[in-house]
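Hi P.,

Sorry for the delay on this. The queue was packed all week, but I finally got your sequence through. Input first:
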Amino acid sequence: MAFKPLVGIFCDRKMLGEHPFHAVGEKYITAVVGGADVYAVLVPVLEHPQSQAQTLAMFDGIVFTGSRSNLEPHHYGGEPSEPGTLHDPHRDATNLPLMKAAVEAGIPVLGICRGFQEMNVVFGGTLHQKVHEQPGHDDHREKGESAESHYAPSHPVHLVEGGKLHQWFGKPEAMVNSVHSQGIKQMGHLLTAEAHAPDGLVEAISVTDATTFAFAVQWHPEWQYDTNPLSLAIFNAFGNACRQRFAGRQG
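Then the structure:
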């Protein structure tokens, strides 16, 4: 039997009734397993994170997913969130140091939505907590009541010519969904913009000097990934990088 690269998908910590659970939406798991052709493992986010060294030694790739929770603003010097804003301090404590360490260790990293925002903050950037309230920016929140309407194509993104995403996809523009209220205010100084929304908001980034795949998007490529050429290009590129690391570790 041929083994596949091992990819860690980091969980959210959610309260279900009186008890905390560690969970990942199935759409992320399905897209990572099917789109990248890897073996996925869900990783909990604990108050006292597990050994970072062992985590980095285990995986051939790491995915940081979207979430309904927001990064706590003190991580990027932002104003306190409005009362009632959902946060996940356990996830912050695990993901922020781990993401930077994984990139530095040459482990392929993919960030989606909240994971995109985490990548920007990890590398020195800041966030708008409410993009729709910023002059000159559009309303990027979900529309309608159903999942189908939430994740329907919402606006085009313009891919930076010659950038990584442009190379993987081969076209200058694509339609994406839009299910977020936060967004990049100031981009991290070690990051490169890979795509922009029509209002100029950065919607895809990569770590400039990373030795392997270190990339994140603001939209949700995991949604019906197998019908979307742009999503398939992203997950395929991530999977190829994971296979390269897996082969090197086996060798």
